[in-house]
Protein 1
Amino acid sequence: MTHTAHTPGEWATRLEPEWNGGPEIMVVAHQGNFDVVVAIVSSFTTPPSDEAIANARLIAAAPDMLALLQEAARDMAAHYDYYGIYHLMGANTDEDCGRCQWVLSARSVLAAIQGEQG
Ligand SMILES: [Zn+2]
């Protein structure tokens, strides 16, 4: 797995009904017996809007999505194209191959997540 510097632990959402004068949705990382706040999603409405809840859920799913993207990009890097031609990404990348292009796009997203230039 590629190293990332994000907060470890299982991420989840938690509603704080009276945080800072109103409801806030927190994204927390479970670490043993306590949670580390990763993000606070403001809704500005009581109860929080469906959109704010969806935003928080999306953020909370980020580590799992990252792991899946890393795994998929790694597994799809070596493949045969539609014509049976073997592609090993980097050594035999084909701009007309949809799978090669998918891997390149995934690598670009992963580089952005890791703070690298795409
Ligand atoms: Zn390909």
Protein 2
Amino acid sequence: MTASHFLVTNMANHVVSRAVPPSLSAKIVGSFAYLTVRDRLPTILTKAVDTIHRNKNKFFEEHGEEGVQAEKRAISLLSKLRNELQTDKPVLALTDDMVDTDMWNQYLQRQHALMEENECPSWFKSPWLYVECYMYRRIQESLRLNPPICDFDVFREAKMQSFFESQQAIIAICTYLQGLNKNIDELSETHLLDQFQKLLQVALWGNKCDLSISAGQDNSQKSSPVDSLESLKPFILVDDSNMVWSILMNNKRPGGAEKLQVDIVLDNAGFELITDLVLADFLVSSGLASKIHFHGKSMPWFVSDTTREDFEWTIKQTLAANHKWMSKSGAQWQRYLKDGTWFYHDHPFWTLPHEFCDMAANAPDLYSTLQKSDLIFFKGDLNYRKLTGDRDWEHTVPFEKALRGFQPAPLCSLRTLKANVQVGLQPGQGENLTASEPNWMTSGKYAVIQYCRPQREQ
Ligand SMILES: [Mg+2]
């Protein structure tokens, strides 16, 4: 490469980076971001207040009068938060002492610098991704500042309920998994691919079960997941599963790398988490992968997102189930965690408001951890929004371009569409959908299996 070529390339990159489209924001009246901030977020706050209030007796039993006082103070902080949101008040600095408090306050400065002169970051003026994440962090702050109840997860009841309401579907998928595992060594490559695609799609559609999009309403899986896959296929807008398969298969064939590590960046607890565990089990028992690293949230997040407590609770519940194949699955998952085949991590970066293209600079330790992976699955909508920066991209922009340099390893997004950002479509595909179904990007009816591998390997 000549010096002048290098300069031109750099200048071109510079031009590209300046041409990044704006963040989605509630400042566009009538947009999905606007409706979310106006309607859905206050509803979630109201439910959080109700949940804390309903647990008053529990707080009294555990902490006496001090618990009741903490409950009152937390509720008053949440009511104040709801009022700030609804009246578009400035975003305030956090005042608690968590490990990420400084990072949040620095990010507020950064958002401030992006505003017009004399304007402050606020709920209806700042990027939607930022203020939505900020709301969940403020819920955490309102508990954190009230020590006896600081570890209370306001969303746990909803997550547990969603798990129990999906029992039949969980039993069905665990039974399917155990049947498959019996003869897994005898499956031909074609059959293995077929099963891989089935379980990948189960994990994809498991992402429909999201309590933040339904503002906490029941959104559980009721029917048997494998049976409905064929009828759901037309709703997968991008299906790169063959490219994902080739990464896994290169390992399995003679001469392939011996230890293939797959990372799964989780989204929701409940049925979706079960589908992720089933996929992980299949990858290990088929020999397609030897290690699985799960990544969850370090605090309650977007109502139904998986925390360490949810992860451990789910496996314990599966193990303790009064059903042979479900219980057997839980026992196997427990063993995988004990013998170091599976790992669970919860880095604070996952609950920061940053786009993932910031990760290398703002969370270099996490970025280098992900670089060790052979394949990273990013589950769900929030991860997709962070992968693409939650920006107003044209639908035909390549996925790789929207990642803006975030390429720690080959990665695959498994996402049902619940926010109006979607890249990597064919020309006309987005327009046709908009013409026939104006809310195709937010209804959760459509999905993508979207893959990108680092440039250096292409
Ligand atoms: Mg979620």
